[in-house]
Amino acid sequence: MRDRPRSDPKPSSAPGTWRRVVRLFLPYKPAVCVITALIVAYSALNAALPLLTQLVFDRALFGADGPDLPLLAATAGLAATAACAVGAVDLGQTWVSARVAQRVVHSLRVEMFGLLQRMPLAFFAAERGGEIQSRLAGDTAQIENAVKDTLPGVLAGAFGFVAAAGAMVVLSPVLASVALVLSPLVLLVASRSGRALENLSAAGQRVRAELASIVAERLSLGGVTMARVHGRRDGEVARFGAESERLAGLGVRSGLVAQGVLSAGHVFFVLTPYLVFLTAGLTDGVTPGTLAAFTVLQARIYQPLWQILNISTEIRSVRGAFARVFEYLDLQPESEPQRSPGPGPGALTVRRAGFRYPGTDRTERPALCDVSIDIPAGSATLVIGPSGSGKTTLGHLLAGLHPPAEGSVQVDGAEIRAPVPERVCIAVQEPFLFQGSVADNLRYAAPAATKDELVRVCEITRIHDRITELPGGYDASVGERGALLSGGERQRVALARALLADAPVLVLDEATSALDPLTEAAVVEAVLADREGRTTVMITHRFGMIDAFDTVIALEGGRVVEQGTRPDLLRDRDGLYTRMVRAQTGSG
């Protein structure tokens, strides 16, 4: 499993990418066939209409007996009918193409979002949020436009070119050969320019992702605050400006390459009619009607060829977007959330567990090494240790957020290597609150919770009175990431949310660190009283005044160095727990 995806991906080969694109459309084969049939009909009708011009010139207007008004009227009626048919066919094709495009892109977005939800936490720790947003939103939007407009445009251009060329051959094979003689040269220029366009497009996508990352990080509340505290506002503007200037430069280069293709096409479009006129003057039997119809057909053939030239530049760009999306879809997610092992009291067992964070040097000490502990069901366990001792890592293993690299973690005898929400819930030091109301954030753990249930858990965490003071009470907005609440208020709302989940095992990872000591002691006491008979594991570095725990586990250097009851550990005057209590309280 990769620790993080490449943010600077090397697109897969064109045939491989396009094969995967084709597979996206396999579930919509009937609709694709309808689109193709409508495009063929549209192209055929467009090519047939100029043939009426020959009929008008040679028979209806300049026939042997003079103008034929009935024939003119009939021709006009036929042309009107054909024009209406062309419009109806084009409308139908657009509607079906839009539906297919939306379904294909919808499935891509949902598949990518679902896969990202299953990626290990290490992926999100390493990958930039702007990169994820760029691929999930920007690249899929580019794909949506391509599926809706570009791919149908390719078919329309190809069929339109073939239909118009065929009509030209029917009118005059000689003139047709002259009209088409330069088209391979134009297509060759477009093909040669495509690789440069593809590389420029890929570079542009990378810069856009970088800009998105800068916006997501630097314009967040924390980013703006940090820039002001350290006087870095001008530096942030300069950094954003430099990336934006890079993107602008890439845009200019892409425009020049694309315009080079179009300019070659322009030469073809201007020169070819005069070559046709010259050939007509040198060829016997070319009637005015034939030449007039040929002139109209030249416009018909220019349109699809011009369309192909324009689309060829877009195709190269969209392949990069497909490659970036496919790269994310190829990531290896973690295992699916486990099914609950069934009813159980919540006994936790850790056997010889070890864990090393991805990307760390193998010569460095692992976060956890050879950890074995037993936490009885219904007990209250305190986990302590100095900074960097592995406390948070142990909490994540107990909650299934990280699978152990060695050994096992079990709840009620069933091994867990992924989150089991029905059995274990965790509240962390830096809680995440969504933009929304207090009630919305609480009900994230229990969507069917009643107002009384919300009040009950908030009273336990001593946050109910503060919530009632907010405008709107439980319906008050918490702001972006809970910015309208203080750090301690966010922690207590998050702790109340964890209590509302009502899991048999609750892990508190520094979940009250932002509270003052008196409030923290009151909240911990209330939580333990409410969860009496259920398993609670509290990880904290402030425990000097807290003694309501059945078991204490002391970690140091990623290993368990002490484990037992509080009185037993305090008997060792030189033990880690005793020394830490003495440092916090001045006694012990």
Description of the molecule:
The chain is α/β, with parallel strands linked by helices. It is 61% helix and 9% strand. It has 18 helices and ten strands. The protein has helices at residues 14-24, 29-61, 69-117, 121-126, 129-171, 173-180, 183-218, 221-229, 233-282, 288-329, 391-398, 438-443, 451-460, 464-469, 487-501, 517-530, 566-570, 576-585, and strands at 348-355, 368-375, 380-384, 406-411, 414-415, 424-427, 505-509, 535-539, 551-556, 559-564. The strands form two sheets. Strands 6-7-8-3-9-10 form a six-stranded mixed beta sheet, with helices on both faces. Strands 2-1-4-5 form a four-stranded antiparallel beta sheet, with helices on one face. Helix 2 runs antiparallel to helix 3 (69-117). The protein is elongated, with a radius of gyration of 35 Å. The chain starts with 13 loop residues before the first helix and ends with a helix.
